[in-house]
Amino acid sequence: MSSLTPTARVILGMLKLGVPTGYDIKKVIDDSTRFFWTASYGQIYPELKRLRGAGLVRAKDEPRGKVKRTVYELTPKGEEALREWLTDRENVIFEIRDESLLRLFFADVLSKDDVLANVRMQQMIFELVLERFREIEAEARAGIDQGLEYPYLVLRYGLDFITWARDWYAEVERRLEAGEPLFELDDHEAARRESGLGAAG
Known about the structure:
Layout: H1 6-16, H2 22-30, H3 41-53, E1 57-61, E2 70-74, H4 76-86, H5 99-105, H6 112-142, H7 150-178, H8 187-195
Helix pairs in contact: 1-4, 2-3, 6-7
């Protein structure tokens, strides 16, 4: 089982990709993994110090003019820790933190108009996210020529997922406006019967 903290995982991965400083790591995170795995400066710099103390990264000062600058790279021990985490298939965490879904979960306390307003707002947010994804798509595609296929693959996942989520909220909006049921209670049972699972007995 990997002992890396959530912040250490993204830091070691970024260092492996050649992102050398805490500032650069934060910048790349903001343009890529923050949509599913983020880290702040307040997390990155203390974690870099901890990783250095643990012998997973090495550091050297490379100032630019009068600006202090520390660059980091993985040690062999850090390479091993990164690979151990990447291949740990017994402790994979699945977690979604989505405030719009949390609001929808508790939406029975709201009026129909309030729910509609929230649903429409979320569609607008998804459109903004899709716009941002399309802006960085060219850069992600360029990485393929450098042997980095999987960042672009993950971006494609994001585009497909956000498009689906936007359309899902659009369907919720349509049903609310039309006064239709938000879902069919017998959908699950119908699927079970079609698969033969509900035929016994």
